[in-house]
Automatic annotation (TrEMBL):
Protein name, per record: Catalase
Record-level Gene Ontology MF annotations: catalase activity; heme binding; metal ion binding
Limits of the Catalase core domain: 29-417
Organism name: Fictibacillus phosphorivorans
Any Pfam family the entry gives: Catalase_C
Length: 679
């Protein structure tokens, strides 16, 4: 390199120095250099009042965050979707004037996008993470978006902290690792120093964070909303989606292996189920609280880190959504769909939940960046089914060709059209809540209880679920390098459960928490998946068959199919196997292309004297056994189960009688997991 080139190179490095930033030890400022006195709370009209548009610091912080990624979603990038329809069971006119929640004769089209939160579009789907559950209702009064998750609470109480949460959760910026995982220092450092996250972390470390399927996953609106009826009376409401098949999960070892074997596991499951006609179904449930009862609970109903225990506020099931059509084009539909919690219809309004208030600003801002401008509502997947008319014009990707010379309100040249619609004729009018308060960056004292519902969650878990929580914390904190962060988390969760915190403290060589255990003894059985619906329908069974097949096997598979169980045959080679009665079995997988973790149960038949075949079959069985899955064996498979010392274990079914075997195996499959098994 010449001396001149060295000079130029050094000069370039000097010029870049002004763009390098080391924030460690510095004071917090806005992008304009203004020193910030408070970065925890958005500006509100009173401690429990709405967030004010005057809050320039919040807007700058959120606007910058919303535009950080192009074009991939900042969060919820990895998603998959399907079309469906919603049918109402009974009119809800007592609570809301929303037409689609009043007229039982109408079917409302829907579009649902499921997603992971933390990972990029290319990440695996069975990672430990919250899941998005966003539903667009195409109603005759406009689009209504119920933008929720599979967990009913969130990490933070105020939207101004959302950029901080996601920055901490995402891969660390100095090395862009780890992908789609919370098991690293910055996330747990955030948790330890933002203790309002305790309840959500309990859910994230539980089995809820590794669902078996989108079809077996609850959905929650998370926030408190309002329903308003024709008389103007309001009720507070939380929205739920209850899967008809029940709420079921993977086990952690299984989830990790699926990530490598089939990173598309969840989307494949949804796609194939719809293609097979096994349409996913979810019942819409409402928890409703009268306005006058707002302060009658031991938690603040506007706090997004709190749930309403179903035993205290029952869930009223009001309708059912069926997903019955796959998308035609993933980009045009799944990627371009634009959800927004502010897309409401008459009869649905907002509360002063400060996290919800911030989302009402953030989503439009995000769509402007991600979809290239203000006309994202004109994309086919986002267009309302009802007509829309206004004076908005131009912009990138404008599809509508507006006629006429008038594009303003009020006007005389077009007889003042388009004109507003009075409330009595269906025009949207905000609920007239009285608001009186000083401008203040603070939160209500009632938001400061961070641990009681985290303990409620712990108390509600079955013993296997508690063990899974202990294992999850031990795994996650075992990946953290900072001993200080590890100890901070131990001390924090000592406020939730000494048993839990002591267990993972010992696993990571930290000092167990000191002090007394939580005084909270309340539990909510509805939170345990042990109490969910148990059904064999749509369960997938891997059937291991050799070169010779008894005619009885085909009869067994047909009987299982009649109960909604799907059998897929596995062997050493693809092709067909002819049974003794002349019927044929299609071999869909080989030992190289399949693995036990992609099935809900294993049924081993045998029919081969090849030692390698038997070795592969036994490996399938042992792995499924370790994951607490149902295992069936007939014919030669019975002997293999006996040799493996599995016969008689919970969930292991074998026998010669076809009818007894089918009944017992179906019942075992219905249970989902056999936790009392000795593994």
């Amino acid at each position: 390199m010449s001396d001149q080139n060295k000079v130029n190179g050094n000069s370039k490095n000097v010029q870049l120095e002004q763009y390098r930033a080391d924030d460690k030890g510095k004071k917090l400022t806005t992008n304009q250099g203004l020193k910030v006195a408070e970065d925890e709370f958005s500006l509100k009209a009173g401690e429990r009042g709405p967030t004010l548009m005057e809050d320039f610091h919040f807007r700058e912080k959120m606007t910058h965050f919303d535009h950080e990624r192009i074009p991939e979603r900042i969060v919820h990038a990895r998603g998959f979707a399907a079309h469906g329809e919603f049918e109402l069971y009974e009119s809800l006119g007592e609570f809301t004037k929303a037409n689609f929640l009043n007229d039982t004769s109408k079917t409302t089209p829907t579009f649902v996008r499921f997603s992971t939160v933390a990972g990029s579009r290319g990440s695996a789907e069975t990672v430990r993470d919250a899941r998005g559950f966003a539903t667009k209702f195409y109603t005759e009064e406009g689009n209504y978006d119920l933008v929720g998750n599979n967990i009913p609470v969130f990490f933070i109480q105020d939207a101004i902290k959302f950029p901080d949460l996601v920055h901490a959760l995402k891969p660390e910026p100095h090395n862009e690792m780890p992908q789609a995982a919370s098991a690293h220092d910055t996330f747990w450092d955030f948790v330890a120093n933002n203790q309002e996250s305790a309840h959500m972390v309990m859910w994230a470390m539980s089995d809820r964070a590794i669902p078996r399927s989108f079809r077996m996953m609850e959905g929650f609106g998370v926030h408190t909303f309002r329903l308003v009826n024709d008389e103007g009376k309001a009720h507070f409401v939380k929205f739920h989606w209850k899967p008809v098949l029940g709420t079921h999960s993977l086990v952690w070892d299984e989830a990790q292996k699926i990530s490598g074997k089939d990173p598309d596991f969840h989307r494949r499951d949804l796609w194939e189920s719809i293609e097979n006609g096994d349409y996913p179904e979810y019942e819409l449930g409402l928890q409703i609280i009268a306005e006058e009862d707002e302060f009658n609970f031991d938690f603040d109903i506007l706090d997004p880190t709190k749930l309403w225990p179903e035993e205290d506020v029952p869930v009223k099931l009001v309708g059912k959504m069926t997903l019955n059509r796959n998308v035609d084009n993933v980009f045009a539909e799944t990627e371009q769909v634009a959800f927004h919690p502010g897309h409401v219809v008459p009869g649905i309004d907002f509360s002063n939940d400060p996290l919800l208030q911030g989302r009402l600003f953030s989503y439009t801002d995000t769509q402007l960046s991600r979809l290239g401008g203000p006309n994202f509502h004109e994309l086919p997947i986002n267009r309302p089914v009802c007509p829309f008319h206004n004076n908005q014009r131009d912009g990138i990707s404008r599809h509508t060709i507006n006629r006429g010379q008038v594009s303003y309100h009020k006007n005389s040249l077009a007889a003042n059209t388009p004109s507003p619609t009075p409330e009595a004729e269906g025009g949207y009018v905000h609920y007239q809540e009285k608001v009186d308060g000083r401008k203040i960056r603070s939160r209500s004292e009632s938001f400061k209880d961070h641990f009681s519902q985290a303990t409620l969650f712990w108390n509600s878990m079955s013993e296997p679920e508690k063990q899974h929580l202990k294992n999850a914390f031990s795994f996650e904190l075992g990946k953290v390098k900072s001993k200080s962060v590890q100890q901070q988390v131990v001390d924090m969760f000592g406020n939730v459960s000494l048993e839990l915190a002591t267990t993972f403290a010992e696993a990571i060589d930290a000092v167990p928490p000191q002090g007394e255990d939580s005084s909270v003894t309340k539990s909510s059985p509805a939170l345990s998946q042990l109490n969910t619906v148990k059904s064999p329908k749509t369960r997938k069974v891997g059937v291991i068959v050799g070169s010779t097949v008894s005619s009885e096997v085909a009869e067994i598979l047909q009987s299982l199919k009649e109960s909604g169980i799907q059998g897929e045959c596995i062997s050493d080679k693809l092709g067909k196997r002819t049974a003794g009665d002349g019927s044929e079995l299609e071999i869909m997988h080989t030992f190289l292309t399949a693995t036990s973790v992609i099935f809900d149960a294993i049924y081993v038949v045998g029919g081969s004297e090849d030692a390698t075949f038997k070795k592969n079959a036994v490996h399938f069985v042992n792995e499924a056994f370790a994951h607490f899955k149902p295992i069936g064996g007939t014919h030669e498979g019975q002997q293999w189960l006996k040799e493996a010392e599995l016969t008689g274990q919970p969930g292991v079914v074998s026998g010669d009688g076809k009818d007894d075997f089918v009944q017992n195996f179906t019942e075992a499959i219905s249970v989902h997991r056999h936790w009392n098994r000795q593994v």
